[in-house]
Each structure stands twice: as C-alpha cells, then as structure tokens.
Amino acid sequence: MSAVVPAPAGPPAANAAPLTARAVGSNRALLLVAPAALFMLLVFVYPFIYGLLLSFHPMIEGGTFANYVKFFTTDNLWPTIGVTLKLALPATLINVGLAVPIAYQMRRKSPYQKWVTTILVIPITLGTVLIAEGMLTYFGPKGWLSQTLQFLHLYDGPIRLTHNFWGVLISLIISGFPFVFLLVLSYITGIDPVLARAAATLGANPWNQFRHIYWPLLIPGVAMAFCLAFVQAFSVFPSAVLLGNPAGTTRVISIAAYEAAFEQYDYSLASAIAMIMGFVQLIIVAFVLGLRRAFYRGPVTGGKG
User: Fold this and answer.
1) Tell me, what's the pLDDT at 305?
2) What domains, with CATH codes, occur in the chain?
3) Which of 164, 203, 214, 242 gives 20 to 30 Å between its CA and that of 44?
4) pLDDT of 89 strictly over 80
C-alpha cells in the first residue's frame, strides 16, 4: 500500500518575491522621505523646541514665566500685538479681495493672460527693501506723486504716505498681492469650466455662476491663501522700519523681538516674544480654517477630472 504524498506548495522563491519587492519599495520610500524629514527637524522643529525651552529660562528673576509676565505687563511690548494685527489683517483682506476678482477674470486662456500675470507678480522679484526704496522715491514728501499733484494744483502741501502707518500698509499690499494672486489663480483654474457651462444652459448668469459654482469651490483655496498671506504679513519687519515709525505707530512685534535679542541681548525674552507671535498667528489661522469648515465641507480642491 503506497503512502499518499501531499502536493508540494508553491515555490518559496515565488512567494517571497512580492514580499521582497514590497520591502524594497518601502525602503526606497523611506530614503526619499529621510532628507526632507531631516531638513524639517534641523530647520524647523529643533529651533522651535530650543526657542520654547529658552523662553522659560529668563535672565531676570521671577520664575519660569517671567518673560511672558514681563511682555504682558510692559507698556511698550504688549501693544505690539494690536499694532501688528492692525497692519496684517487689513493688508491680507485687501490682497484677497483684489486677487479673487482678478484671478476670476484671468482664469480663461487669452493672448494677454501671460503678460498680465507677469506684470502682477513682478513685486515678488523685487523684495521688501527695493519696494521700500521705490515707495520712498514715489510716495515720499518730496516724491514724484507729491510733486505731480502740487504741479497740477490738485493738492497743496506734501503727501504723507511714508514713515507712518499707511506706508507700511501699502508696502504689505504691494509685496503680498502677487503671492495671494498666484495661489487663488492656481485654485480657480483647477475648477472644471464645464460646471459653469452646464449652469449657463440652465439660465444662470455670470454672477450666479460665480456665486453658486466657483465661490463654494474656491472657499478652501481662499482660506489657505488668507492664512499664508496673513502669516507673511504678520512677520513684517523691513517695511515697518524703512517705511513706518518703528518707535511709534508701526512698532510691530517683530521689532520688539529684534530689540530684545540684539539691543538688550536678552535672548530668552526674544524667544518668548517669538512664541507669543507664533501663538497669535496660530489663533488667527485656526479661526479662518474653522470658518472654512463651517461654510464648506467638501474636498479641498475642485479640480478637473
């Protein structure tokens, strides 16, 4: 009576091949992610943790939170939060308010689209220092604008658009608008135009097409553009010094951090001011993203396909 021999299973090499390929793919993915993760740790995570810990080691006596107590009890420190918000919020709202209709008109391809886009984004290549120098030349008390208006007898006396609140605000608008415009344009061009055409066949006019189709799909992009533009404007420093009154009406929070670090050499206080600055930004960003979720709960993009 012969013994029954079970049928052999598949070759071990054939079963192990998919596992090996999967492991190799995972290792390659880790190798690709490792440089970016290391860069984030060295440039962002480590400085943040170091600054946070340093802020709890004050140079003055008073305990762990002495730097934070000093900030909120010193008359020339805590008002810098309000001054910075008064500059950053209006500049961001104006940039978003201008970028949305312009990007909406530029969503269709046309012969002049590239030229107009290039002109609108030129301030990105200039930088805040060159923008400030140009504004001093054009908008200063003896600048071209003031002299032209006086020559045409449209205005008597010099125009004060520099070394005050308005100079810094105009600078933030000029330097921040191209950034917001490109973000909004990238979102609005990703919305499938077939949706608007379908609405037009049902009798929707251009305003209703924008209100009921483009704007709901554009809300996530506008919210993200607002957050990024606000963070950029809230960290204003060169414009506040060159075009504003850094000892008075435009003494922003970044100037307070700079003075603590490089004039008083109190790096722990400067770190505390930086932490407060980041916390205020986080509150505004969280509020805006919360509003976005309240008005729109769909996907974050309305792209084609």
Assistant:
1) 39
2) 75-295 (1.10.3720.10)
3) 242
4) yes
